[in-house]
Amino acid sequence: MASESRLYAFSPETKEKLRKFRLGTSRAKDPQAIICKAHLLSRRPLRRRCQVYNKLTVNLLDIIDQKSQEIRPENGEVYTKMTDVADELPDSSPRFILLSYPLTLKSGRPSVPYVLLYWLPENCNPNSRMMYAGAVELMRNTAQVNRVIEVEEEDDIISIESKLQSED
């Protein structure tokens, strides 16, 4: 974690929002997700936009300060379906998606997996790929997710319930 912590940092406010999201989704009845995206801009601040989707949840827009590499949240858009999240994902840029997905396992036991989906499309820019790869473990540790699942196609996002069912 030391190497990625030198490249990226989370402000105490962002850490608190991630903690509240994690704790607040543990008993949720509907799926909830935060989509984080970064824009590579030369000589300008990098932007990370996070969107939360759920009927009652407010979204976040994260901005990375170029000098401090600190991530700060702002408001964003709301999604209500996994298909909407999949439609929002770009064809050629990676993203992080924090997902809390309530489901009932085949055994009948309720479960709420809290995972980090790592959206990594086949044709993404190598610079973006490297930037996100360097932040995966920091994001995983900061968000305190149970596991990281790499997804490459929109269908993987839409059918994530079957993947979560099979891995629990």
TrEMBL record:
Record's GO cellular component terms: actin cortical patch
Protein name: Glial maturation factor
InterPro entries in alphabetical order: ADF-H (IPR002108), ADF-H/Gelsolin-like_dom_sf (IPR029006), GMF (IPR011171)
Any GO molecular function: Arp2/3 complex binding
Cited PROSITE patterns: ADF_H (PS51263)
Listed PANTHER family: GLIA MATURATION FACTOR, GLIAL FACTOR NATURATION FACTOR
GO biological process, one term: actin filament debranching
Pfam families, per the entry: Cofilin_ADF
Domain ADF-H as annotated: residue spans: 31-167
Taxonomic superkingdom: Eukaryota
CDD domains registered for this protein in UniProt: ADF_GMF-beta_like (cd11283)
Family affiliation: Belongs to the actin-binding proteins ADF family. GMF subfamily.
Annotated organism of origin: Aspergillus bombycis
